[in-house]
Write a structure and sequence with these properties.
Layout: E1 2-6, E2 9-14, H1 17-29, E3 38-42, E4 47-51, E5 58-65, E6 68-69, H2 73-80, H3 86-92, E7 95-99, H4 100-103, E8 108-109, E9 121-122, H5 145-157, E10 174-177, E11 185-186, H6 188-192, E12 202-208, E13 220-223, H7 224-228, E14 234-243, E15 254-255, E16 285-286, E17 291-293, E18 295-297, H8 304-308, E19 316-317, E20 320-321, E21 328-337, E22 343-353, E23 360-363, E24 368-375, E25 382-383, E26 391-393, H9 404-419, E27 423-424, H10 433-442, E28 450-451, E29 453-454, E30 466-475, H11 480-483, H12 513-521, H13 527-531, E31 536-542, E32 550-552, E33 557-559, E34 569-575, H14 576-587
Parallel strand pairs: 1-4, 8-9, 11-27, 12-26, 13-24
Antiparallel strand pairs: 1-2, 3-4, 5-6, 5-7, 5-9, 10-14, 12-30, 13-26, 14-22, 15-18, 16-21, 17-20, 18-19, 21-22, 23-24, 23-30, 25-29, 28-30, 31-34, 32-33
Helix pairs in contact: 9-10
Length: about 600
């Protein structure tokens, strides 16, 4: 007796599970039962699971009966002539949707020629197995699934032209590549998604070889002349907003150049780019701390004391400035009104990003790497024909990742560039490697894609044939300019007096247990004294009771709140965070007594 579950709830048992499942499927296909129902049987549990609830991922498959696909040529012709629609095929039972559970009981053929009497379903197309991004990976059938997932992620992170109305948009943080190209080696998905209208990478010449260790650990070496010619050059746009807000009591902000006697006035240098209306003008080069929109606000807290003050003294400066670590050129200035009818200013700043050491690049196979070295063109290796690669890629990145598709794409790119046509690399239905080899041989090149290369620095022939060809590369949105971060002195937190956290807040980099070990290992243990002094505090401690004492700096007098004026007090150096802990323990009625001993 098989247990029967409906949407996870036990509803009864059945003597003949195979017959029940067959009947449910027949009723679903002929329309006497909703097409949303899915049924599956687990032998080991002897249970039938029927699902009809919302939120299940289901995918369409062609039904196979007695070793034959139910989708005929007549159906395809009618579809082409618009005589029937997709829904008609579903109603006929030619196509049905399966969820993850029912798929466990199905045997699905990838191609119609593979169908045997045991098969229950046929894929509509092999590319349906993967999503849109994964289908943009060329020769995906030759790589590991994880690398295809990574390739899909890289596609999302790549820089391209994401919108044609870019000049009038003010998106939060976007980068646009200057010279995007359509790939030579592409899949069907590129045409289906019309990627030619918004491409996101460039075709580059790639040589697979080590280069002095500068492309170790996935790093890439790039030709300086290629960068000078505009390879992977991009611009980052960042908007800054400012609004004249209204406050209770009829007070409002004022967008204007602040007066010198206003509280929080910066330096005259910070306001140098503001025009008479207090707003920066376009095409001016700005640096961190420069004011983009000058603004004056009324006092935050209206107390009895504040009300007695008059004029500018009570007002404070709340201008919009360029963020710390940012720089660029003012692209555009928009002056408008917000929904509440307040004056509203939006300033867009652009910053040109030329590839630099540490910027991230990736092929479409999840082979990501950062820029390790930029070499002058004359020092780059070159082929017998004088072709200089744009990128030198490390051969050590291939064996462990097993991205054979990466190599076949380079081969295909070479063929496509020589033939002047795009190469179809759609998963499971691409031009195969042997055809590419044959075409390469016909073009007068070695069929395995390797070439004799010469060292640009010495002129000597490299004692190995180098695999070289054309490949589509992405520049990813992770750039050093957005991440580089260092500080000596700067703002501290109010509570712990330790440096603030994060690049935007001019924060410090935390030194942990392992970093400490590195310093000690390098023989720089004294550096720890400075590192761990970020919240150094000298605190008076009573020798008798071990609690915090009080020190009057002006009278040069110490007092213990417990033991009185005569108590012996000494000054102890400690982290302010530790002093805070002592205070918090006292607040919970715990007596944190410090037993003081001499240093020696």
């Amino acid at each position: 007796m098989a247990n029967v579950f409906l949407n996870g709830k036990f509803i009864g048992t059945h003597k003949n599970p195979d017959k029940l499942i067959k009947e449910i499927k027949e009723m679903r296909r002929n329309g006497s039962m909703p097409s949303e129902i899915n049924v599956s049987y687990y032998n080991d549990e002897d249970s039938i699971f029927i699902f009809s609830d919302k939120g299940r991922a289901r995918r369409p498959l062609i039904v196979v009966k007695n070793g034959k696909s139910l989708l005929t040529k007549e159906h395809i012709e009618k579809l082409k002539k618009n005589e029937i629609k997709w829904d008609d095929l579903v109603k006929e039972g030619v196509i049905e949707y399966l969820d993850a559970e029912e798929e466990e009981n199905a045997l699905i053929a990838v191609d119609e020629n593979d169908i045997t009497p045991e098969h229950t379903h046929l894929e509509i197309s092999p590319i349906v197995i993967m999503g849109p991004q994964a289908n943009m990976v060329p020769y995906a059938q030759h790589s590991l699934s994880y690398r295809i997932t990574l390739g899909a992620k890289m596609t999302k992170q790549s820089l391209g032209i994401y919108a044609t109305n870019l000049p009038v948009r003010a998106d939060t943080d976007v980068s646009v590549i200057h010279y995007p190209q359509v790939p030579i080696v592409k899949t069907q998905m590129y045409d289906l998604l019309r990627v030619e209208n918004h491409p996101a990478g460039q075709n580059v010449i790639v040589a697979i070889m080590p280069f002095e260790g500068y492309n170790i650990h996935d790093a890439v070496v790039i030709n300086k002349a290629s960068i000078d010619r505009g390879l992977f050059r991009a611009t980052t746009y960042r908007p800054y907003k400012c609004e004249e807000l209204r406050y209770p009591g009829g007070q409002t902000d004022t967008i204007a150049v602040p007066d010198k006697d206003i509280k929080g006035y910066r330096t005259e240098h910070a306001y140098r780019y503001l025009e008479g209306d207090g707003i920066v003008y376009p095409e001016v080069e700005v640096k961190p701390g420069d004011v983009l929109v000058g603004k004056v606000s009324p006092p935050r807290f209206l107390s009895s004391l504040e009300e007695l003050r008059v004029g500018t003294e009570a007002q404070r400066e709340t201008s919009t400035t360029l963020a710390h670590g940012e720089q660029g050129v003012v692209e555009s200035v928009l002056i408008s009104e917000s929904e509440e009818g307040n004056k509203f200013v939006k300033v867009k700043v652009r910053d040109q990003r030329i590839p630099e050491l540490g910027d991230k690049f990736a092929s479409r196979h999840g082979q990501k790497g950062i820029l390790g070295l930029i070499i002058p063109e004359e020092d780059m290796p070159f082929t017998e024909n004088g072709i200089v690669p744009d990128i030198i890629f490390s051969p050590h990145s291939i064996p462990t990742r097993m991205t054979v598709g990466h190599l076949i794409e380079i081969l295909g790119g070479k063929v496509g560039a020589l033939k002047g046509k795009s190469i179809d690399a759609t998963a499971f239905q691409s031009i195969n490697e042997f055809e590419l080899r044959k075409m390469l041989k016909e073009a007068g090149f070695k069929e395995d894609g390797t070439e004799v290369m010469y060292d640009g620095r010495t002129g000597e022939r490299i004692r190995a044939r180098i695999f070289v060809g054309s490949q589509y590369y992405y520049r990813l949105r992770h750039m050093v300019a957005n991440k580089i971060h260092a500080r000596s002195r700067g703002p501290v937190q109010l509570l712990t007096r330790q440096p603030t956290e994060g690049r935007a807040k001019e924060g410090g980099l935390r030194l942990g247990e392992m970093e400490k070990d590195c310093f000690v290992g390098h023989g720089a243990a004294l550096l720890l004294k400075e590192r761990f002094d970020s919240d150094r505090a000298v605190i008076p401690i009573c020798k008798q009771c071990g609690l915090l004492a009080i020190y009057n700096k002006f009278k040069n007098k110490t007092v213990c709140p417990v033991c009185g004026d005569d108590a012996p007090v000494t000054f102890v150096e400690m982290a302010y965070a530790f002093k805070l802990l002592l205070d918090e323990l006292k607040s919970m009625c715990i007596y944190p007594k410090l037993n003081l001993k001499p240093k020696y």
